[in-house]
Amino acid sequence: MDHAYRSSWPLFVIVLIGLITLSGCAKNTGGVTASSATTATGNSTTAVLTKADQQISQQKIAAAQKTLAGVSESTPAIKKLALGLKYYQEAEEALDNNQLSLAKGYFDTLSSYDGTTDASFIAARQKLVKQYQAVKLANGYYNAARDELSIHDLATAKANIDKLDDVQATHPVIKKLQKKALAMKQAIMNYEASQSTSSGSDSSTVVSSSSTSSASDSSASSSSTSSTSADSSTMTSSSNSSTSTSSSSSELTTSAIIKQFQDASGVTFASDTEFNITKETSAYYQITAIYAADESSSSASKTVTDTYRYYPDSGSVTKENSATGSFE
Q: For residue 54, which phi and psi values (nearest 5 degrees)?
């Protein structure tokens, strides 16, 4: 009987060792499984960001957004890059439509966004901001040339068109503006050509871009005061055009001009608003309204102004758009 007891003891030890070994293997297997899952998630995030970066570098912003949105488990890095691309797309769309007033707010948001340090995003943003600055510059030259052409200031209009031509066409909007300016440039060239061939004519005209030219003969007695008048699309070559179009307004005092402007503008200005005539042409007065600062405001030290153009012959008033520089 004592012999039977001693023979079972080694068997018990072997079974115990086997159970301990199996338990250790199970723990090790569980650890490997958890580690593998973490590694797989990290690899998936890296792959998504890499693919999105490639698409951003190729200016495929919508495709990059789709790539980021398709990830099963979004990480903070993916969310922040996706938000930056949203700001980018809003600014890009406004710029493509040449809506500079709207674009300004979007570009302010995009430029100040620091949620991601993704190199591809930052490079794409810098490129878009440079395009925005170039488009603003081109719009400024185009609007200035158009306005000066409408008041027959050919030299200044031509200078602005030349400046517009020199702007590098880094965006389709710039190309469109340069193409539209060609019509204005052609009108100026036609006018200059007519002057060299008909210096003795008192009524030769050049019609801008889309207008058609016309000429009519009338007696000297009936046209002495009207031969030099021109609408917004016609430039006259008479040497008396500047004096005749402004004869009715040149006698007005500054206070009278300001009073007429206020009446024509339809704007109710505060009694402490100051007005300065900053430019005078044969067609309009450019008037800057300077508003008194609100001492209770945090921006009291900043001077607030608006710039208008008053056309005494028609009684119309236009206001400068601070974003585009044009008068509307």
A: -60, -40
- CB of 73 closer than 8 Å to CB of 109: no
Q: Which amino acid is at 142?
A: Y
- The residues near 190 (Cβ < 8 Å, ≥ 6 apart) are 206
Measured between alpha carbons, how far is 80 from 117 in angstroms, rounded to an integer? 9
Q: Which residues of 219-238 are buried (b: 16+ CB within 10 A; e: fewer)?
A: eeeeeeeebbebeeebbbbb
Nearest to 308 by CA among 316, 300, 317: 317
Mean pLDDT along residues 223-241: 36
**Separation between Cα atoms, residue 259 and residue 277, nearest integer Å:** 12
Position of tokens 């170039």? 134
pLDDT digits (tens, 9 = 90+) for 84-99: 999 999 999 999 999 9
Tokens of 74: 């979004």
Q: Give pLDDT, residue 147.
A: 86
d(CA 56, CA 66) in angstroms, rounded, equals: 12
Q: What is the pLDDT of residues 127-143, one digit of tens each?
A: 999 999 999 999 999 99
DSSP 91-113: HHHHHHTT-HHHHHHHHHHHHH-
Residue type, 288: T
**Rg of the Cα atoms in the chain:** 37
Average pLDDT over residues 260-279: 87
Phi then psi for residue 318, to 5 deg, are -120, 155
State both tokens at 232. Answer: 């917004």
Mean pLDDT taken over the chain? 75
**pTM (2 d.p.):** 0.53
